[in-house]
């Protein structure tokens, strides 16, 4: 009986710790954006989106399956289907406001429209391919410096003033350890969800 009580207490403690690890606030992000601290704001956005995506996956798989396999389309659908529109709109609103609409999901979504990627996402087959992802990443200059391992370093960010519209928030939250262009596909899936939220 005592062992059962200890096991129950451990399970409750683990569940509580897991729940607390998924909580977040937009206050720090807004503070960083207000100060034009773009690099730290990008990292904070990555942290928030990471928590949001873990919540989306955990909603279906409970704790224990909190690592995303961004290679699978099923996982991307799981990732985006349960993301809350209000969260995506809040992040976009802050980035758009403090960057005078140079950065944010709206700026990135406009690029997807211009590149013709949204038309493919709206089709019956949702035919997104690596060429589309590559085109999107190049447009945002995300592919620079990936090969030398400096991703998300100050040299990768460079002079933010010279970066193209939509450069931030970057795909820091979605990049795989192997540095492949899988991150862009995840970002496009999230942007497609954001587009659907606006309809």
Can you walk through the features of this model?
The chain is mainly α and 199 residues long. It has one domain. Helices cover 61% and strands 0% of the residues. It contains ten helices and no strands. α4 runs parallel beside α10. The longest helix is centred in the first third of the chain and has 24 residues. About 12% of the residues have low confidence.
Radius of gyration: 18 Å
Order of helices and strands: HHHHHHHHHH
Overall outline: globular
**Can you give the mean pLDDT?**
77
What is the tally of beta strands? Answer: 0
How much of the polypeptide forms β-strand, as a percent range? Answer: under 5%
Looking at how many chains there are and whether they match, the oligomeric state comes to: single chain
Overall domain count? 1
Span from first to last CA?
A: 55 Å
User: What does the largest sheet look like?
Assistant: none
- Any low-confidence stretches, pLDDT <50, length ≥5? 57-74, 176-181
Helical region count?
10
Secondary structure: helix percent:
55-70%
Estimated structural class:
mainly alpha
């Amino acid at each position: 009986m005592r062992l059962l009580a200890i096991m129950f207490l451990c399970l409750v403690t683990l569940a509580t710790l897991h729940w607390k690890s998924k909580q977040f606030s937009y206050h720090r992000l807004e503070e960083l954006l207000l100060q034009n601290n773009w690099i730290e704001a990008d990292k904070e956005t990555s942290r928030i989106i990471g928590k949001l995506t873990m919540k989306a996956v955990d909603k279906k798989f409970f704790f224990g399956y909190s690592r995303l396999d961004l290679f699978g389309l099923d996982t991307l659908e799981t990732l985006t289907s349960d993301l809350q529109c209000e969260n995506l709109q809040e992040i976009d609103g802050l980035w758009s406001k403090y960057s005078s609409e140079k950065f944010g999901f709206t700026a990135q979504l406009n690029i997807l429209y211009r590149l013709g990627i949204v038309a493919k996402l709206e089709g019956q087959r949702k035919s997104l391919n690596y060429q589309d992802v590559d085109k999107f990443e190049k447009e945002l200059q995300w592919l620079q410096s990936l090969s030398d391992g400096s991703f998300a370093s100050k040299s990768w960010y460079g002079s933010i003033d010279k970066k193209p519209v939509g450069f931030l928030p970057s795909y820091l939250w979605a990049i795989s350890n192997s540095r492949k262009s899988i991150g862009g596909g995840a970002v496009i899936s999230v942007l497609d969800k954001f587009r659907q939220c606006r309809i």
